[in-house]
Amino acid sequence: MNTAELHVDEELLLKMSGAGPRYTSYPTVPEWREFGDADARAALTRAAAKSDEPMCLYVHVPFCARMCLYCGCTVEITRRSGKVHSYLAAIEREVDMTRALLGPRRKIAQIHWGGGTPTHLAPAELRRLFEILRSRFEIEPQAEISIEVHPHVTTFEQIDTLVELGFNRISMGVQDLDPHVQEIIHRDQTTEETENLVAYCRKRGIGGVNVDLMYGLPEQTEATFAATLDTIARIRPDRLAVYAYAHVPWLKRHQTALERYALPTPPQRARLFFVAIEQLSKSGYEVIGLDHFALRSDALHRALEAGTLHRNFMGYTTHPAEEMLAFGMSSIADIGGAFVQNNHDTREYEAAIGAGRFSAIKGLVRSAEDDLRRAAIQALMCGMKLDLRALEARFGRRDLAQHFARELQELRPLADEGFCSIERDVVTVLPKGRLFLRHLAMVFDEYLRQKKADGPRFSKTI
Ligand code: SF4
């Protein structure tokens, strides 16, 4: 499928480039309220009842050696090894506190370590963190175990350790290979480092290798980004995430430093994304969901075809475990019908855990209406189809065509653009619509509808 078959052009991308949420959760984070230890305990206690259901498990490792100026993650810049030691001790205690409330529930279908840079940890520390989890949970034999790595700091010895521990998916941050762009964004990473690491992961039997790219960075041009895409297509990861740079200096102050340079204008951003779609399509990658591309041979692509693709805070995944435990500063759990986010400050997180309290600061207990709308959004973003009859069966309702009458009406202009078809009670996302899933999802976002013009700011959709 190429851009001609998709019938997308730069004008359309530009027209659709308004702000909007990414829907890694629904309701989205701006709707959450203050949470605390008691809320986290209540959520885990509710979750204990589903004793046989497997869960996903996320660990946030915030440490990085140097700040990349585009970074939107929650990180702590450090080279001190003592920091890692005390952080792992806090994780261990948090896992124990969690296990105590979960009772017999201990099956894990998916693990993801994100950051920060999880490979900031030395091999012995990687082993220690994994052992904290392995000794307290029952990791299913087919579990997907993944980690985010920075090619510049990741050694073959670390990869060997990860393979020995059972990691079977790796995601690499690359963003852009152009030396001038890298210098501006403070990212040192040669093409050889990325190429060698992908090759070594393959050699060690790791499948589903992912590379993250970013468009909309300062001084990025169509020519430089096309060169990056060419090189990456040659290196041939199984999957790619191509994200728009989110310039949010009011949240991430370090990004202000990038304002000295020429940031691509909205039309230039649209053109950069167009270049990405065009080149990746020609190289055999297909759009599988929001910002994500995969080779047909990749498990994510197969999951899309089989209707088993799933989306959670880790992004798209093949494992449909509904709930997620999360450990570490800033991490977000989706457990017991609630989202629960930990404190963003490492010291405050460690202090709370040291005192025997969960460090939850923010969250939301979902209502039945939230769950219904969340399921509708997930169906569109993962299954590429919203079948209201199937949703009725799942939620024990018989009135969803009526309940969502306004939404079905609001989808009409998007159907006219060729993003979806609407037949009776089924909305099907068409190939072109895979690029505009946020727009389809926004129609079902009740909070967005109620929001006034001065509501929270989101990053651009394109
Ligand atoms: S390595 Fe990743 S997490 Fe760390 S500062 Fe750079 S972009 Fe942020």
Short overview:
The chain has 18 helices and 20 strands. Helices cover 40% and strands 21% of the residues.
Determine the mean pLDDT: 93
The rough form would be described as globular
> Largest sheet, if any?
9 strands, mixed
Q: What's the total count of β strands?
A: 20
Distance between the termini: 20 Å
Question: Which superfamily, in CATH terms, is the homologous superfamily of the largest domain?
Answer: tm_1862 like domain
- Into which percentage range does the β-strand content fall? 15-25%
Helix content: 25-40%
Quick one: CATH class of the largest domain?
Alpha Beta
Describe, in plain words, how this protein is organized in 3D.
This protein is of the alpha/beta class and 462 residues long. It folds into two domains: 3-326, tm_1862 like domain (pyruvate-formate lyase- activating enzyme), CATH 3.80.30.20; 368-451, Arc Repressor Mutant, subunit A (Orthogonal Bundle). It has helices spanning 3-6, 10-15, 37-47, 81-102, 123-134, 156-165, 179-185, 191-203, 222-235, 266-282, 299-306, 346-354, 368-383, 388-395, 400-403, 405-416, 437-442, 446-450; strands at residues 33-34, 55-61, 63-64, 76-77, 107-115, 138-149, 169-175, 210-215, 239-244, 285-289, 292-295, 310-312, 315-317, 323-327, 332-335, 338-342, 360-365, 385-387, 420-423, 426-429.
